[in-house]
Amino acid sequence: MSDPDPDQAPGPRHVAIIMDGNGRWAARRGLPRAVGHREGVQALKRTIQSAPKLGVRCLTVFGFSTENWNRSAEEVSDLMGLVRAYVGSDLARLKREGVKVRILGRREGLPPDIADIVARTERETAGNEQFRLQVAFNYGGRADIVDAARKLAASGEAIDEDAFGRALSTGDGPPVDLIVRTSGETRLSNFLLWEAAYAEFVFQDVLWPDYGEAHLAEAVNAFRSRDRRYGGRPAVPA
Ligand code: IPE
Ligand code: IPE
Ligand code: MG
Asked: CB within 8 A of 126, min separation 6: which ones?
């Protein structure tokens, strides 16, 4: 990837995306939801390729929520099948392109072969530093906060905001700058609850399977026009 020097890029460095709208994309075409999910994987591949060109160094995507187990057994199994297929076809490329993959979310409850794929993907990309891809899978923001609290309680470590942030599954990555949701919905659906505290939000009216570089560029440009105040005074006084 021949990309801008990430340290010179104006940001956002870390973009998190709620990839929503696969089902509606399929329904509009009279196709099964599974086709929407399959096309969603293509959109994910496009987005991973586009992100570094825009100066993004870390991409977090919401792939499967703790609440998505409430979908039909068939749809859950389709989504698991896509993980197998995606890692099977793309792990070598991710390794080659220097992508470090981290899976956010509970390992317990995953089908054993998916848990193995997750562990292998993390292990085989652990040394990469070009780009970081975090996939929230069997992830819920509340569950992650509870797990962090349990971890800290068990360790006896003093609890402050820094320690808590580090104990979350995103704890060893960069702070989240921008949260994007596609499909026109304007809710978090239990994504990155703690990390969202001072993130910027962009809601885009595009169904996830249609997402591409132009949409990501639009979200990044919207971010760049924002004035992040963190509770302080505006950069340009009114
Ligand atoms: C997002 O698309 C993918 C997952 C949640 C796994 P949806 O499947 O939620 O699509 P809609 O919201 O029904 O259109
Ligand atoms: C959030 O989308 C989860 C993912 C994108 C993986 P949902 O489609 O599950 O969220 P709700 O049900 O509309 O809130
Ligand atoms: Mg949805």
From this structure: 100
